Amino acid sequence: MASLDAARAQLSESPDIIFSQAIALAFETTCSLKQIPGISVLTFPAMDPLRLTVGFWKLGLSGYKADEILYRDYGVICEIVGSKSITYTLNLGACRDHVQKLLLGIKHLAGINGSYQQVEERMLTVHAPFDDIIMSLIPRDAFFASKRKVRIKESLGEVSGELVCPYPPGIPVLIPGEVITEKAIDYLLHVRSKGTVITGVSDPLLSSIVVCNV
Length: 214
Known about the structure:
By secondary structure, this protein is α+β, with helices and mostly antiparallel strands. It has 2 domains: 115 residues, Alpha-Beta Complex (Aspartate Aminotransferase, domain 1), CATH 3.90.1150; 74 residues, Alpha-Beta Complex (Ornithine Decarboxylase, Chain A, domain 4), CATH 3.90.100.10. The protein contains 6 helices and 8 strands; from the N terminus they run H-H-E-E-H-E-E-H-H-E-E-H-E-E. The longest helix is centred in the N-terminal third of the chain and has 20 residues. The protein is elongated.
């Protein structure tokens, strides 16, 4: 409550200036990021100007690996990290020193991984969600069905007995009752290999999966 009251007081004193400074700094940082070879910056109309989503796949780096290096070597802390990108947030306390540290770290990554710029990391052509979803059971019936655990690579054609949800983005790839396809397996193994956290499953390492006995 005290922090909320302090934020309210801060905004009431100079509402026209306080956000404009942060937004201007974010815009300047975005322009600088776009000049770094191998780095992609997400931009589209009506997006939050204080959030910077930076892609590292052209460097042959996952978002998780880039975040590990930037945090370890430069003390840069992100808001959220994904398999291909990292999202950073600039707040009212952000200053030029903070963004300079971010830019220095990303320039370092681009420099040491420059050999990947001409040969991008091989990416799977499979992207969730899929257009070939087949439901064998309704989720309720799948929840109460008898189940067994099988190796993930042997689960093709089986009926999922659990929710399989990579985070981020936090959207289920498989739900109970859904037939497990090759595309789903390939996608899940790919994002898991990049460090994505798999939630909803009994085996977070995704070496096995629970399926229904149908």
